[in-house]
Amino acid sequence: MNGNGLSITPSGGGVGAFVDGIDLSQPLSDNITGAMRAVLGDHGALFFRDQDLTPDQHIAFAGEFGPININRFFPAVDGYPEIAEVCKEPEQESNIGNRWHSDHSYDAAPALGSVLLARETPPQGGDTLFASMFRAYDSLSDGLKKTLEQLRAVHSSRHVFGRDSAAYYKGRPGLAERFSNADAAVQDSIHPLIVRHPISGRQALYINPAFTVGIEGWDNGESAPFLSMLYEHVVRPEHTYRYQWAPGSIAFWDNRATWHYVVNDYHGSRRLMHRITIEGVPLEA
Ligand code: SIN
Q: Do 43 and 16 touch, CB atoms closer than 8 A?
């Protein structure tokens, strides 16, 4: 318990902390949001239980942490352009988020993070795995850290949300059709491979298998195996935590400090999540 009545319990895995003793439907004091921001900067993700929020309360909570990003590619909840719907219907085979990724790394100022609220969950399965990019950095050798600190990586939205996304969705039927606005997928950005977290100042590895397309100045034959080696390192079990959802559960993750991956093991059941993404800042080494 800290001085604000918040109870913070580290997840026990490599990333995330549970936050209890708070009703997110009520306005929050600056002390509380400041404490949450600090925990997010340290742990990379905040997990809440039993938060029965209306869409307006969901928007008000997320808005405490920065301006809301209106998603270009996801369907929105009716009447709420701020809330993206992440859904898999019982008859659908593929789900959204079934590859390790960090949202919006293709933007010049990548999103701070997202507040994802579970509306309907399957009786079993549909967990989300998180990985800590702080731990991934910390556990590299000093020699490799020095090398990575000199590099920058190129990130893009084109191959995921653009017109030429067929290769990305190979083997995942029906998924590409759930996104729209392919002509808006024109973002390419270059970020340092090792960033300083804008809240905590901790160093984090900043690349991800979905949106990173190469290392600046390297050709693909050099970049691809090097990035694969780093990706394998990130998902070591010691760096991860597997979050189980129930209706009213919330995960608030920081994209600069984490990856996430949604397990697709709940065929025949509906899983409906409401996601609000918060704008971030340009990232520095
Ligand atoms: C996402 O990848 O943003 C969705 C995460 C989830 O549905 O758990």
A: yes
